[in-house]
Amino acid sequence: MSELEFRTAVRDALAEEIERDPAVVFFGEDVAAAGGVFMTTPELHERFGPDRVFDTPISELALAGAAFGAAVTGLRPVIEIMFGDFMGLPMDSLVNQAAKYWYISNEQGSVPLVVRSAVGAGGRFGAMHSQAHGTWFQGVPGLKIVCPSSPADAKGLLKASIRDDNPVIFLEHKRLYSVKGPEPEDELVPLGRASVVRPGTDLTVVSTMRGVPDALAAADRLGDEGIDLEVIDLRCLRPLDVDTVLESVAKTNRLLAVEEGPRTGGWAAGVLGAVAEEALHELDDVWTLTTAETPIPYSPTLEDSFLPDPDAIVASVSERLGISIAR
Amino acid sequence: MIGTGTTEAEAPAAYLERYARMLLIRLFEGEMHRLFLQGHIHGTTHLSSGQEAVPVGICSALDPHDYVAGTYRGHGHALAKGTDPEALAAEMLGRATGICGGRAGSMNVIDLEHGLVGCFGIVGGSIAAATGAALSAARQGRVAAAFFGDGAANQGYFHECLNFAKVLQLPVVFVCENNFYGEFTPMVDVTAGGDIAARGAAYGLPSRVLDGNDLWAVRAAGLEAVESARSGAGPTLLECQTYRHYGHSKSDPATYRPKDEVDRWMERDPLALARGRLLESDLEEREIEAVEAETSERIERAVEAALEAPFPDPDEGGAREFRE
What we know:
heterodimer; A: 327 residues; alpha/beta; Rossmann fold; 2 domains; 11 helices; 14 strands; B: 324 residues; six-stranded parallel sheet; two-stranded antiparallel sheet; 46% helix; disordered N terminus
């Protein structure tokens, strides 16, 4: 069976949607001639020409603002804000212009716009090139936030995001770009639906992006010890699919949320809160595994220790369940 | 004599219509002032009285399907582009019949049907909205225009978008309404170099300073800039120097402006200038008065109808976060 690389999935999704719909345009910094700094968009410029795929100045505010203006006048722009950390710069346009438009215009128009960015730590990029900005935007009504964990989902979710009539923040984890996986079964993956990627009975682990394969690796090891994890990939932070988590917790009665980000203001705590509100009586235990409340460090020893990797998940579960596992 | 440059050949009647549109804005703003003081309009509002020649001059140079983005001082932008005064008044009053159903209010008016991409409550936001609309406009044979104040010339939006639009040769006209005060602060105190048009020139845009109280001058410059944009020659910056008759917002009596400065500008009221110029033409004063009476009645009817309109019902539901 043929395998799909994550970065190729992104490229293919873009190519197929640019091909399919003449309103789709793609622009950003170094995305056209250079093919993207993470080599996610090679050959699109050559194939579709400068009217459809073009480079822009390093001007994130103009990029997002122009994409907004284009989206409300007939185009369906996809832009790349190279690193998620740069998302502070275009925030006014995304939060005040794009997110609110559908509602405050009294539904005169919506904003079909996708903002792709590379996110996440583990690449030794330091504190200003390693963050995941999903939670910066999670409290903004009108935005969708998509965060795939596999090549198949990356493709189906990106295609669905481009076809969505609302503004979508699309996160691509840097430590997933070289991951290979099965080709997608369906062309589109609907936004706002979590996926049970591993069924289990003892404990529900929810995560996103790189946290999902890490949780699966931890589940394999804990399985050897007789602990059966159910792993859920949220796939979207907004809309957040709490129902799938509730169904799982009804079975396992325990919930761990693994987030590559601080606990304060993070999505993990939000999921726990939503589950507690709906199903307190179902719960034997809930907790989070998150990063320290510090900026992301550079040095390999510091960064490795900072991240919730499979070892950290195994250790956290073992400690919480009161079992001892040989390392 | 009517007209300068490319507008010279136009019949006086065309300018009578534009004068009436300026008057419509002036009377609308007067009514908003009254309704605010009477407690019918809530929060804050920013009136554009004194600046009418800029949006009317520019919008008269645009086609109806061209795009415009305005500011939080945007009632004039909307009315100049064709927004129905009753729907606009109802929006100010928070009524269900408002142009945005009462969801937007004074600072964030949107009227896509008339090409008003939106008015933006954040200083400089209109510049990006028009730049983006120009990406679409380039494919549609249209043009986009951004209105913004002198304060916006110090925002990232201004510098990033002028560069962006020039690099991509987008069909956009950047229209700075320089009313010499950014909120309460004199423009010259916070604008390095003191010359906004020069900033456009630095980015390679044809950039002009013009008398923003002269309808004829604004229209002539607008026609040139719009034609240039539509022909593929890229963006232009027009710095229209003008003056607001009220303070920045409803909480501002504008005591920081020297009396002689205010007097000087009041003598150059754009409506009085336009009326004087119309009187120099072969139009009869009674023709002007007839249009004035008609405009006044139109505003009266619009406000009356808006005041009678129902408030939106919060229990009606229907608010949807996303378009399905």
